[in-house]
Fold:
Amino acid sequence: TNGGQWKNADITPCNFSDVSREICQVAKLATNERIEQLQYITDIGNDLGSTGVILSVAVLLTTTDEVSGNLSLINNFLNVVDNIINIDEDILQESQESSNTSAKILEAIGSIVENVPIGNISKPVVITRRTFALSAQQVDLNQFMEIGQNFSANLGGFSNLNT
Structure:
């Protein structure tokens, strides 16, 4: 050999909280059970810490494709998001800085809202939670363009104008 020597492996166990271990177990459940358990775990929220938030978001994101188009699962998914958003701001900031959790949640919500089942084309589907509200309505963009109208959305006090 070349004379190199490996150091002894660090076999110190990871110091995950009980909640983090519980979230890892939830990942093995079926989609509807996964979301229900995440609702429960995140509802008691302040014990999560940033690792718990990161894990909760990671597990929640595994359900996005299956949730899409199912209004009942969408509602439960958004309950989990609401619980996470309601967690201590410092914890959320730490999880965002280390794992980009906020951006991941927003991307998932965008994907889900695109596929919200709309029963009546003339009325929007409105979903409200403690920390946010979503509205989805089917529109024919060509009609807006033909008559020169604008479609705008107000997002948390910021107005975006799309034509």
